[in-house]
Amino acid sequence: MEPSYHACAACNYQRKKCAANCILRRHFPKGKTNVFNAVHKIFGVANVTKMLRAANSLADQDEIAKSLYWEALSWAKDPVRGPYGAHLQLEDEIRVLQERLLFLEKAERRPD
Ligand SMILES: [Zn+2]
């Protein structure tokens, strides 16, 4: 655990003191400035804080933080479609793999 005098990336950005019970500290520690910046750019600190506070457990908070980061990266990669672009890409991959599977199943059924 970092000494308490190091503000987390979120508090450092907001230029405020990082309290010992800062809800953002766990997910955006001092060394994760790039992660915080990506998430903050898309969702904003207030919304991220609100979503983390709504979680029922630390495990859920971790999942929320990972999910927000993934979505923020999706928007950085594809500013037009964001996560929907990733979804479309996965649909294409599934279609290609299903076609290959069908081809291989047909080839297996052919008599020698
Ligand atoms: Zn903090």
From TrEMBL:
Residues 6-108 form the LOB domain. InterPro entries: LOB. PROSITE patterns: LOB. This is LOB domain-containing protein. Belongs to the LOB domain-containing protein family. It comes from the Eukaryota.
